[in-house]
Each structure stands twice: as C-alpha cells, then as structure tokens.
Amino acid sequence: MKRILTILFSLTMIFSLVACSGQNEQSSRSSGSSNSSTEEITPSENSSEPTEQPDKPSDTASSKTPNEKTAEGKTLVVYYSATNNTETVAGYIADATGADIFELVPVEPYTSDDLDWTNSDSRVSREHDNESLRTVELEKSVPDNWDEYDTVFIGYPIWWGIAAWPTDTFVKANDFTDKTVIPFCTSSSSGLGQSGELLKEEAKGGNWLEGERFQSGASEDTVKEWVNGLDL
Ligand SMILES: Cc1cc2nc3c(=O)[nH]c(=O)nc-3n(C[C@H](O)[C@H](O)[C@H](O)COP(=O)(O)O)c2cc1C
To answer: Whose Cα sits closest to atom 3 in ligand 1?
Structure first.
C-alpha cells in the first residue's frame, strides 16, 4: 500500500512538473510577443521622433545657412576717416567679418587746419555754415565689383551731429538695391542720431539697419561684440 501511494505521488509530481514547464514555455512566448509588441510600440515611441526630428533638420539648416550666406554674398566695409578713429573701427569690423575694405579719400584731403572747428574760417567750418560747399569729390566713389556685395558697412566720423560729408558723395554715387546697409560712426560724445537716416534718404535703395556709434577710441572687443550681435 505504501509503495502504491509512493508511485501515485511520484506520478502526480511528474505530471505537475510537465504541466508547469508547458506554462513557462507559453509565458516565455507571450513575453517574446510582448517584446515584439514593445518593438511595435517603439514606432509609436518613434512617432515622437518626427516631433524631435524637425529639430535636427532645422539645426542642420541653421548651421548651413551662415555658410551658404558666406559663400553667396560678400561684405564690404566702406569708411571715411579724417583722423583715423573711424579707420581703426572699420578695420576691426573687416577683421571680424572677413570683409573687404574701401576707404573714401577726398581729392582734396582735410588737413588739421581744415578740420579746426574752433576756427570759424576753417574749411570745415565754412562747409558747415554753407551746405552748398559740402560736396566733396572723392578719388573713387564706386568700389570695384560693387554688385558682388550684399552687405555694406558704412563708417564715418560725426561732424556737428551728422555724418562727415565725404560720406554723402559715396552714398549718392551708388545703388544699394538688394544690399543690407549698416551705418557706424565714431564721435567724441554725440550719438548716431539721424546720421544713418539722413544717408538712407540720399541713397538709392538698400535695407538700412539702425547702425551703431562708437567712442573715438573704441576697443576691438567692443566692436566685435556688436558685429557678432548682428547675426549676419
Ligand atoms: C569738424 C568736426 C566736427 C565734429 N563734431 C562732433 C560732434 O558734433 N559730436 C561729437 O561727439 N564729436 C564731434 N567731432 C569729433 C569726431 O567725431 C571724433 O573725433 C571722431 O572719432 C573722428 O573720427 P576720425 O578720426 O575717423 O576722423 C567732430 C570733429 C570734427 C573734426
């Protein structure tokens, strides 16, 4: 009797073990199918990718745009400077942007006596007092390859609150259509004021930005900080 019971118990155990192993196989398969359904969910996680993906192309686009711009259009820094302050700033801008540079040189340059604004009879004082005398002929008014430039910085000293008048000759002589124009000036204390606006009124076309005034002895860092902020 004891032996029969032992055999029955053993059979029960074997049956249970076989049944369990079958269940495990099923559950491991369903876990496999659950894995595969995870893979199917992944696309739905992937479906969030299109939301993220636009960031990537737009990142790529924004990193390309400046290069494309650099390849497409050139920058020119034009300046008039009587005592070199504006020339120095123009050089900083050209270095920061990789621009070409074009100096406005009057046929009859201003001497230090000419520039003596404390003398009411100096050249500059007479020109200031009589607008008809302010037409200053330049050695060269139209830069070489003018059409190749799509960004033009125009720099000048402030004379009695406005752009030194040799600058007007240049502005009147050129067509700025399709160009971005950025005035800049140096002065002892005056701001940019209406100087950029007045030049814009004399010019043919162009997208004129507000521009910037620099202290006569502005540092390279100050100028570069401004240039970088323009996001050209
Ligand atoms: C005739 C003349 C007029 C000037 N008028 C002004 C003025 O109205 N406001 C000002 O802040 N500085 C004035 N200045 C100072 C110059 O704008 C300043 O020194 C400028 O940086 C000179 O630039 P440049 O060295 O490129 O010629 C005047 C200078 C001259 C010679």
So the answer is: 159
Burial class of 62 by CB neighbour count within 10 A (0 to 12, 13 to 18, 19+): exposed
**87 with 162: CB under 8 angstroms?**
no
What is the best residue among 159, 160, 184, 216 to mutate for testing ligand 1's pocket, by most ligand atoms within 8 Å of CB? 159
Whether the per-residue pLDDT at 171 is higher than 60: the answer is yes
Question: Of the ranges 47-51, 112-116, 154-158, 228-232, which one carries the lowest mean pLDDT score?
Answer: 47-51
Decide whether any atom of ligand 1 lies within 6 Å of the 160 Cβ. Answer: yes
CB of 118 closer than 6 A to ligand 1?
A: no
Residue 153's nearest CA partner among 201, 217, 122, 199 is 199
Helix (H, G, I), strand (E, B) or coil at 56: helix
Q: Are 171 and 143 in contact (CB under 8 A)?
A: no
Instruction: Look at the domain 72-229 and name its fold.
Output: Rossmann fold (3.40.50)
Most informative mutation of 112, 127, 158, 185 for ligand 1 (most atoms within 8 A of CB): 158
> Domains of the chain: which residue ranges?
72-229
